[in-house]
Amino acid sequence: MAVSPPAKPSARPRSPNFSCGPCAKYPGWSLEALKDAALGRSHRAKVGKDKLKKAIEDTKALLELPKDYLVGIMAASDTGAVEAALWSLLGPRPVDVFAWESFGKDWVTDCVKQLKPLEARSFVADFGQLPDLKQANFDHDVVFTWNGTTSGVIVPNGDWIKADRKGLTICDATSSACAVPMPWDKLDVVTFSWQKVLGGEAQHGILILSPRAVERLENHKPAWPVPKIFRLTKDGKLNKGIFEGETINTPSMLCVEDALAAMNWARSAGGSKGLAQRTQNNFKALKEWVDRTSWITYLCEDAAGRSPTSVCLKPADPALTSLSKDDQSTFFKKLTSMLETEKVAYDINSYRDAPPGLRIWCGATVEADDLKALTAWLDWAYAVCRAELKAAA
């Protein structure tokens, strides 16, 4: 006898945008916020430079950076900012590079295969796990990702980083900056992009340098050619213009205006502390559902290492875990497609390289009530797909 499908939930998320990048716009965002963008003007005109400089100053204030740290706007999103740091700074010391997700593995490729003759060690963990951070030698430069966006695994804290290190710490913080507290005194180079926690537009990266990183730049010449887009020095000295609003290449002034609006909202939401609290509230809303749901669980088994922003989930139902990876992927593609058709959740499938499952953004621009509404729809879509799976068996 045919079984009737479960009833659809009555409440819907007000915003169905739960993508891990580009992420949801902040609550109340509209095109009206961009009305003062310097469109049709040169980014080197006074109006363009002023807006770029304000974006830098607002970033420093929002993150509560030390006064002697520098902020620059780079091309090619967080990737461009990371690459500029690696290609410009590495070489004088051996490097230890840690990875536990897709983008961190790209930095391993740079350090081990591309930047030769760099002496490099790599420490790589599977999705859902952290490598042994105690293996880091801080006489070396150390490269790592604070939050693994594609694995849902975050560094619990900065206690493992030595204060008296001789090498530099280079941290890809793209899904953690503005979302969790960062120990700035332990970090010499930090990168992120507007498209993550701030819900800004893509293609622009932020590069943060400590005085130790600046000293390295001015006393080191890389053994390899450095592409123009990555060059942070000029005639052996720091190119200070980059950190005053003179970008290496042409930025989008529309994206700059959007970032300014996002940071204005962030100030109204309580600054970095307010954004961190919103993130934790969102994570709690999703966690409560995961904790009471038998068919899904965290990709990261260690609670201390679970990201509160890019929450990655895997199947726990034996009927799913017994399937091949391809069949699991098919199941979750069907589930997420149903939610997209219903316009209640977009872009929540796991990352293409990650194990099959879900990846749901809980950063500050998402509303906790929307996450609570989403969970009922997740249960509904699962019940429908699970019934179809059972009928096909």
Task: Write up what this structure looks like.
By secondary structure, this protein is an alpha/beta fold. Helices cover 35% and strands 15% of the residues. Strand 2, helix 3 (102-114) and strand 3 (120-124) form a beta-alpha-beta unit. Helix 1 packs parallel to helix 5, helix 6 (271-292) runs parallel beside helix 9 and helix 8 (325-341) crosses helix 9. The longest helix has 25 residues, at 368-392. The chain is globular. The mean pLDDT is 97.
Oligomer: single chain
> Beta-strand percentage?
5-15%
Share of residues in helices: 25-40%
Which overall shape is indicated by the principal axes computed on the Cα atoms? globular
* Distinct helical segment count: 9
End-to-end separation in angstroms reads 15 Å
Computed Rg: 22 Å
Q: Main β-sheet, in a few words?
A: 7 strands, mixed
Low-confidence stretches: none
Quick tags:
393 residues; alpha/beta; seven-stranded mixed sheet; three-stranded antiparallel sheet; 14 strands; 15% strand
Nutshell version of this structure?
The chain is α/β, with parallel strands linked by helices.
